[in-house]
Amino acid sequence: MISRRNLVAGIGAGMASAAAGRAMAQSFPFKPNQRYPDPAVEILDPGFAKYRLYSSTLEQVATGMRWAEGPAYFPEGGYLLFSDIPNNRIMKYSEKDGSLSVFRSPANFANGNTRDRQGRLVTCEHSVTRRITRTEKNGKITVLADSFEGKRLNAPNDIVVKSDDTIWFTDPVFGIAGEWEGFKAKREQDNTNVFRIGTDGKLTAVITDLVNPNGLAFSPDEKKLYVVEWKGTPNRSIWSYDVNSDGSVGNKTKLIDAADQGSLDGFRVDRDGNLWCGWGSNGALQSEPVETGGHRVYQLKGKPEDVDGVMVFSPQGKPLGFIRLPERCENLTFGGPKNNRLYMASCHSIYALYVEAHGAT
After folding, report:
1. How far apart are CA 121 and CA 105, in angstroms?
2. What is the phi/psi pair of residue 269, to 5°?
3. SS3 at position 165
4. Can you tell me the distance from the alpha carbon of 361 to that of 9, in angstroms, rounded to the nearest whole number?
5. CB 121, CB 138: distance < 8 Å
6. What is the dihedral sign for C-alpha 37, 41, 46, 51?
């Protein structure tokens, strides 16, 4: 039997293995825990205890999706919007009555979503149109970016709006790499960039050396930009950058290394600067084949379900806590009337958990 992995971390470049596997994995289909505190919330460092609500349990608030992504909360309406990419639609979950409805279909295989400072939906359409759009209050859709230097964008993935109203997004190739999350198409950009859309509409490539950048977020004071490199070598990583006054970035530093088979995707930052990261198995194979039934075969390392959930790191990259989910978590956001309800987009479902942390924005 393959032993479960231990958590290894270092300050600055915290290296996390697949973690929280020392506790029992959540079962699927989901069955809520009936006892407090919820054993799905695991404290890895004493500093995380203050963020766990003793009398809060994990909830599955929506299910039936094929690949849930890009959750964005709208406090003025008390609802969550999120993408169901293979089904080519954006869904709406209402906190008021618990209803789930289709917000937009077709949605050009929308991936990341966010709310701008004026309460408008900003979306990454990562296939077909391959663009960034804003949905105006009257329902009109405004195209903010669809090309760079005369060439079509790859497949816009995740997105965030800074307090100065500039829009930052990642542009990997996932939406044009196959037929599941869109339509396979030819890549036109030489790089997979991180872009910034200025308030004047100008599109600038601020980071050009990452291989398939994915999730991104700012520190609470917006002096740091964090970006997931999905195809990082040897592991997926979160890079930290200093944000300059002119909108450029520098001082690239590895903050988190998803060692072993940990898989980083989307993440959010709380008011204290902690990073709440979507986490799960990346399907990593053993480097050496195993003899099984007289055949040499490759197998997954460990148990993938042991690492499905949300990993929480300090601003220095130290693992603080883990929230176990029955499904791999792709992305998440803070919401609710007090901005302390964590919504987790996880494969087929949306899970929610009240915590004593609040989203930075």
Report:
1. 15
2. -115, 140
3. coil
4. 27
5. no
6. negative
Burial string for 168-177 (b: 16+ CB within 10 Å, else e) reads bbbbbbbbbb
Q: What are the tens digits of pLDDT across the range 81-128? A: 999 999 999 999 999 999 999 999 999 999 999 999 999 999 999 999
CATH 2.120.10.30 assigned to domain 17-354? The reply is: yes
| Residue owning tokens 């003025």 | 76
| Distance in angstroms (rounded) separating the CA atoms of residues 124 and 327 | 23
Q: Which two tokens stand for residue 356?
A: 């004593």
- With CA atoms as reference, report the closest residue to 93 among 85, 81, 104: 81
Closest CA to 361 of 149, 115, 55: 115
The pLDDT tens digits of the residues spanning 308-355 come to 999 999 999 999 999 999 999 999 999 999 999 999 999 999 999 999
Q: How far is Cα 176 from Cα 173, in angstroms, rounded to an integer?
A: 6
50 backbone dihedrals φ, ψ, rounded to 5°: -70, -15
On whether the CB atoms of residues 306 and 18 are closer than 8 A, the answer is yes
- SS3 per residue for 13-52: CEEECCHHHHCCCCCCCCCCCCCCCCCCEEECCHHHHHHC
Q: Cβ(136)–Cβ(148) under 8 Å?
A: no
Q: Which amino acid is at 290?
A: V
Residues with Cβ within 8 Å of residue 302, at least 6 apart in sequence: 2, 3, 4, 5, 18, 21, 260, 261
